[in-house]
Amino acid sequence: MTTHIKPQAALISTSRTQIGSQAQLRIGVGIGFRLSDPRVLAHEASVWEAIKAAAPSVPLFEPGMPKQHAEWLLLGHAHYRGGREPEGSVNWSASAELGTVGKRLSCHAAGQLGADGCLRASLELDHRQAAAGHDGANPCGLPSHTPPLQLLCGLGAKPAALAALGPLGLDWPERRQWQPARPRSIAAMAEDGTHLGWPAATDLRMFQQAAPDQWSRERVWRSGECFALRGMGPTGQGFAGKLPALTAVALAGRHAGALSEQAELALQTVWFLPDWDLGVMWWSGFLPLDYPLQEDISQLLVALKDCAEPLDLAGLKAFAWRRADVADQDPMLLSDHPLMPDPGRGWVWEQILAVEDHPGQTPAPLSHEQIGDRMRQQWQAFEQAQRDQIKLRAFARDSEKCLATTPTAASSHIDWRQRLEQDEAGELCEQTLSGVDLSGLDFEQRHWRQMRFEQCRFDLCSWRQCRFEQVSFVDCSFTGARLEQVSWTDGGAQRCKLERSAWHEAVLQRVNLEDCRLDGVVFIGGSWQAVTVQGQGGDQGRVAQMRWDRVSFYQVTGENWRVEEVRADGLDLVRSALRGAHWRHCQLLKFSALESDLSASLWQRCGLTLAVISYHSSLKQALLEDCELTKCCWQALQADGVHLEYCTCLHFCIGKLQAPGSRWNGCVLDGAKAVNANLAGAVFQACSLRDVALQGADLSESRLEDCNLIDANTAWILPAAAGGWQGNLDAGLQDLPRRSA
């Protein structure tokens, strides 16, 4: 998965293809600007909202493909504003020009009197208003010799199928004529790059989206090129100016490494959206790939800079590295200034800082000065937040030192041990106990409500059929305690010792266990609902015969736990390490493990449904026996040496799985998605891999014996050595295109 680091205002598109023998990640970088003031850069949401409102007959998008000619496209209306004339049909002209490439149009529409008594008319400059032409030249056009929209030339108006200014469909005759001939066999397509791409001899005019009279003779537009739109805009006032003198930068890093690669970008496409006072400049380029589905590009940085501004690549890389680091909470990293042109050179850009700022809410447009003031205020707010953060961290450090030296609060004159031993009523509420030793006491059918216990000892205590409501324990000890049929609703335990405590048939709801020691703890029977275990942990705990609903473990560490006969609906492990855990006869629905270590764990007869074990998690050296995985995802999971015995995995997503040296024996993996998985040295014995997607996977030194590979796709894999695959069913196997190790 590629992480995009970009300014809020910028547009970015990526697509994978192959031209000839060169696989590529095509990149498009765009920036919107105001036609009335090109120094104001528009937010990307403004562009998408404008295109959505335009609803063109052919969708407008930029895939970043190479073009032989620079081009421009336009979505919007031509407007007529006349004097006090009678209502009726109106003929008028409109034109659009960029550099030396212009197009004049004749427009015909019914006029209507406005509130000021002046005649007004408008016409959509879309293919729907132009002539259909011959042989399907304009599939959206009108079968008329006098359509509303016509070309205007020296001899007057004439109908033309491509009179409109929007994009042409790939299947239209104008673009279809440049499409290359494709070979008929898969082997031939693998040879010339057309399997998922285009032959080396492809005519790049096929990628032109505009009509030929909107192409430049040059391959790229120059920054600062002049443009003029006449008879367009919200009131038909037109626009004239220059494209913003900007350059785009795209830096990429592979395999989570440094941003060491720079894509060469060319300004080849300009969009005009005059109804919304918008233009968009698109740069396109590519990064080379070994094969089209390769996913080694981990980061992509996009920046826009003034053409006259010195380009500090080292500064961009340093900023990108810090912004991508979720642990770096510096508020200044939220600012886009390092990725945008210098405001000192007159540049400003729109920002969405609140819901009402979104273009979908139709906010009133701000002037250049107002946007500049808003940017300065936002920058000052970031600076203030940075100063406040520094003060807060200093305060937290001082507070920790103060708490460490604070003496224990003096206990009250009440002998709580004697009172609780003699209390037959069983109810206690709205009290705070501090520093009380209650070790060894037995509590039966007690009801504690809105209680707080601080630095109390409950070692070897026994609770039976007790109820806790809004009860909190802080810095307390429960070593060896026993709790049977206890109900605990709301509250929690913080920094408590729960070692060797035993919980039988306990019911916990909305309880937080924070930074508690759990060595040797036992939970048998009962249920947990909305329970969070955070921090600390312990070894050799046991959980059995329980029901869990929305249970979370966050930053919990432990080894050799036993989890048996647990039914969970919503179990989350986040940044936790439960190495060597033994999961047996569990049914886990909506289970997720993120940045968690489950290495060397043992899973026996478990059912996992909608389970996600991914994102820097580990199942290294784990063993799964007789398990059923349904709609599970092990995307990019670290699973070196994982071993699956007689498991059924339905709708299994294991793209980019890192499982070298893994063993799969008697498993059903039909339809699994294993694109770009690392299965080097893996062994598959008597497995069903029917219709599995293995494109791009590393299967070097692997062994597949007596497996079902019918309709499997092994294109672009790193293949095993000769003789590594034996006795397999391979009817319909798709092994083209191929790549070498």
Q: Can you offer a commentary on this structure?
A:
It is a single chain. The chain is mainly beta. The chain has 6 helices and 50 strands. The protein has a 15-stranded parallel sheet, with no helix packed on it. The model has no long low-confidence stretch (mean pLDDT 93).
Features of the shown structure:
741 residues, mainly beta, 15-stranded parallel β-sheet, 13-stranded parallel β-sheet, 50 strands, 11% helix
Q: Would you summarize the structure shown here?
A:
The chain is mainly beta and 741 residues long.
Q: Can you give the mean pLDDT?
A: 93
Low-confidence runs: none
Cα-to-Cα separation, first versus last residue: 23 Å
Assembly annotation = single chain
* Radius of gyration (Å): 34 Å
Largest sheet: 15 strands, parallel
Which descriptor suits the 3D outline? globular
- How much helix is in the residues? 10-25%
User: Strand order within the widest sheet?
Assistant: 22-24-26-28-30-32-35-38-40-43-45-47-48-49-50
Strand count: 50
Number of helix segments? 6
Strand content: 35-45%
Strand-pairing-aware structural class: mainly beta
Please outline the helices and strands.
Elements: E1 3-5, E2 11-19, E3 22-34, E4 40-42, H1 44-54, E5 71-74, E6 77-81, E7 89-98, E8 101-110, E9 112-113, E10 119-124, E11 149-153, E12 156-158, H2 173-176, H3 186-192, E13 226-230, E14 239-242, E15 246-254, E16 261-262, E17 266-273, E18 278-289, E19 297-306, H4 313-324, E20 348-349, H5 368-405, H6 416-422, E21 427-434, E22 442-444, E23 447-454, E24 462-464, E25 467-474, E26 482-484, E27 487-494, E28 502-504, E29 507-517, E30 522-524, E31 527-537, E32 542-544, E33 547-554, E34 557-559, E35 562-564, E36 567-574, E37 577-579, E38 582-584, E39 587-594, E40 602-604, E41 607-609, E42 612-614, E43 623-625, E44 628-630, E45 643-645, E46 648-650, E47 663-665, E48 683-685, E49 703-705, E50 725-726
Parallel strand pairs: 1-19, 4-20, 5-17, 21-23, 22-24, 23-25, 24-26, 25-27, 26-28, 27-29, 28-30, 29-31, 30-32, 31-33, 32-35, 33-36, 34-37, 35-38, 36-39, 38-40, 39-41, 39-42, 40-43, 41-44, 43-45, 44-46, 45-47, 47-48, 48-49, 49-50
Antiparallel strand pairs: 2-3, 3-4, 3-18, 6-10, 7-8, 7-13, 8-11, 9-10, 11-12, 13-14, 15-16, 15-19, 17-18
